[in-house]
Design a protein that fits this description.
Layout (H helix, E strand, L loop, with lengths): L7 E5 L4 E5 L3 E6 L7 E3 L10 E6 L5 E6 L6 E6 L3 E8 L8 E20 L2 H4 L4 E6 L2 E6 L2 E6 L5 E3 L2 E9 L3 E10 L10 H16 L9 H13 L1 E2 L4 E2 L22 E2 L2 H12 L2 H14 L10 E2 L10 E2 L13 E2 L10 H15 L8 H15 L18 H16 L7 H21 L21 H4 L10 H14 E2 L2 E2 L17 E2 H13 L3 H12 L11 E3 L4 E3 L5 H16 L5 H4 L13
Antiparallel strand pairs: 1-2, 2-3, 3-4, 3-5, 5-9, 6-7, 7-8, 8-9, 9-14, 9-15, 10-11, 11-12, 12-15, 13-14, 16-17, 18-19, 20-21, 22-23, 24-25, 25-26
Length: about 600
């Protein structure tokens, strides 16, 4: 059985990622890319679906772990009755070579270890042929994939597993180096594990050392930024939502999705986080990825893309995997890529406007491309859509989606770049006013005076917390204040925000899920803008208290079982944490810095 979600650590090298449990088992690893088929899939099944465990033979050994400062290099200290040992786990930065290196070091006394390697390609379904090449090297091959494992310790076959037993004493150091390669080529060249460790340490030290401070929250912000960097795909600049698929939003439920892709909507929040933290190079790389991915006819704009901009992300199920804690189905691919979600137009225009404002240069053709997309938006904004939450039910006229359409036209109308035709600005302003009038007529509850989830509904939706961060209405407008209050009344569960009431059936799925962590961070930013700073701080402290011992967050939290839920670690949660931290540190909303004009962020009568 897999460990609790919060008991995992992430290793990464900006090409893929591995999840390591506290018991020393790597239960999830996809090679050579984030979205490749897993060679270790015990996370979603059992040990026979692939894992790699290195741990003391003593079942009573105690464990303590932590990242090397500012990195994704994991150090795990094991204590037994006979001694102390350390395991260093990391994914080297070795050019195109991708793999995992594990170094076992003796610290005190003597510790007996056991390493059990179970390789199962194709998400735990394909058992490889394992061959000993020499005394230090074994290969595993199935179909297009090959793994090579090198170590001075002898590895022997035992019952369809590869096992090594050894001991370390003070001063001993035993490396295990695993690398992926195409099965039709020669094995990847051997790397020096200690040189690889030094280079990885240097990479992370240089990268994390450039982070702008966020006051008292600087350390948790830096950890979240390192996670975000680890979820980026270095060759293209894309950033995956998470390195996992099908970790459930409800234990035993079917809300299990593949998040190993890049969401165009995330451009807004990611750019804000990177720019605020001082990472303009990464912001430019993400901007360029988005620009390439969305290239083409605007009616072909997708919600999400592959890490290189791939568009065909067909969804299918892996029936041989039992699912995390029996949550089935296990899905690969994501059918949301074919959905119509109106809000992404506003998110993209807002993101690029924000990037320009903060010194991230735009391409010369940016205005022409934007006009083409806005002309298309002008013809479709009245249509219902599947919305930000990617519902699997009937489309609705979601208020958040309509406000994001308004934002696209409004931001375009405010752009005054040299050589720009003023007629376009006037056209976009006219349409923005038309969209706004439609929302105010149909998207406000006449009794409560707050925005609602969709036209004709009285349900609330946490995405309205983004609406209140725009300058759609002044911060002190009664409808803004009423919306935040209504969300507090209807969607708070033990102080955390749920997305919406799943019992309404709006999403076409069985009811039930955890509380959505990004929404709770959005509430922090709303509190900041409304001058409720003590409440903002209190909620933020509670939220960062949900991170695991390594500072990692999943997508959701279940306050009943006090466990994390959903894919892990989740970029959206960490980006929301970063933006909320900067909001608290500087007294303004980092998200509103994108969604609202500067003068709208500090309205008269509202303390921020």
């Amino acid at each position: 059985m897999a460990s609790r979600i919060e008991d995992y650590a992430m290793l990464g090298n900006c090409r893929s990622a591995a999840l390591v449990a506290k018991d020393g088992s790597i239960d999830w690893l996809c090679l050579p890319r984030f979205d490749s088929a897993a060679c270790f899939a015990a996370l979603l099944g059992n040990e026979n679906n692939g894992r790699w465990r290195i741990a003391p033979a003593d079942p009573d050994a105690t464990v303590r772990r932590g990242y090397v400062d500012g990195s994704l290099i994991l150090e795990t200290e094991w204590r037994t009755a006979t001694g102390v040992a350390r395991v260093i786990d990391f994914m080297p930065f070795a050019g195109d070579q991708v793999g995992v290196t594990r170094i076992v070091e003796g610290v005190e006394g003597r510790v007996d270890f056991e390493a059990v390697l179970t390789i199962r390609f194709d998400y735990g379904n394909a058992m490889p042929w394992v061959t000993r090449v020499d005394e230090r090297t074994v290969t595993a091959v199935a179909g297009p994939d090959m793994l090579v494992v090198r170590s001075p310790v002898s590895v022997e076959g035992e019952g369809m597993h590869s096992v090594a037993r050894f001991a370390v004493s003070r001063g001993d150091s035993i490396p295990f180096v695993m690398a992926w390669g195409p099965s039709h080529l020669s094995p990847p060249e051997a790397i020096d594990p200690y040189d690889a460790l030094e280079k990885s340490l240097a990479f992370w030290e240089d990268w994390s050392g450039r982070c702008n401070g966020a006051g008292e929250w600087s350390e948790i912000v830096r950890r979240s930024l390192v996670v975000l960097k680890g979820l980026s795909y270095l060759p293209t600049g894309g950033i995956v939502a998470a390195p996992t698929t099908s970790l459930p939003e409800q234990f035993g439920g079917e809300r299990n999705w593949d998040y190993r892709f890049c969401w165009a909507r995330d451009a807004t929040f990611v750019l804000s986080a990177l720019v605020n933290a001082g990472y303009h190079e990464e912001a430019s790389a993400w901007r360029d990825w988005v620009r390439r991915a969305v290239a083409g006819s605007p009616d072909q704009l997708q919600v999400l893309y592959g890490i290189a901009g791939e568009r065909r992300l067909e969804e299918y199920e892996l029936d041989w995997l039992d699912g995390y804690e029996s949550a089935k189905p296990v899905r690969v691919g994501n059918a949301a890529s074919n959905q119509f979600q109106l809000d992404i137009f506003g998110e993209l225009v807002g993101a690029f406007s924000h990037a320009v404002k903060h010194g991230v240069a735009m391409q010369p053709e940016a205005d022409e491309v934007q006009n083409v997309f806005l002309e298309h938006l002008a013809s479709i904004w009245r249509h219902p859509d599947e919305g930000i939450w990617e519902i699997r039910g009937e489309p609705h006229h979601f208020v958040h989606s309509k406000v994001m359409a308004w934002l696209a036209f409004q931001r375009a109308s405010e752009q005054n770049r040299e050589g720009r035709d003023p007629a376009f600005s006037q056209r976009w302003r006219t349409i923005a006013d038309e969209v706004k009038a439609d929302i105010l007529a149909k998207g406000v509850d006449p009794e409560r005076g707050c925005f609602v989830q969709s036209y004709g509904s009285r349900e609330l939706d946490a995405s309205l917390l983004i609406v209140t961060l725009t300058d759609f209405l002044p911060r002190d407008d009664p409808r803004i204040v009423a919306t935040v209050r209504a969300i507090e009344e209807d969607l708070l569960v033990d102080g955390f925000v749920r997305r919406y009431d799943t019992r309404s059936g709006v999403d076409g799925l069985p009811p039930g899920e955890g509380e959505f962590l990004p929404c709770s961070f959005w509430l922090v930013e709303n509190y900041v803008l409304l001058g409720r700073l003590d409440e903002a701080r209190e909620l933020f402290v509670r939220l960062i208290g949900l991170t695991n011992d390594l500072g990692l967050l999943a997508e959701e939290y279940d306050p009943r079982s006090k466990r994390l839920l959903g894919n892990f670690p989740q970029a959206f949660s960490h980006v929301a944490l970063i933006n909320a931290a900067f909001s608290l540190a500087h007294g303004y909303s980092a998200t509103a810095d994108i969604h609202a004009t500067p003068e709208a962020q500090h309205p008269q009568g509202v303390r921020a």
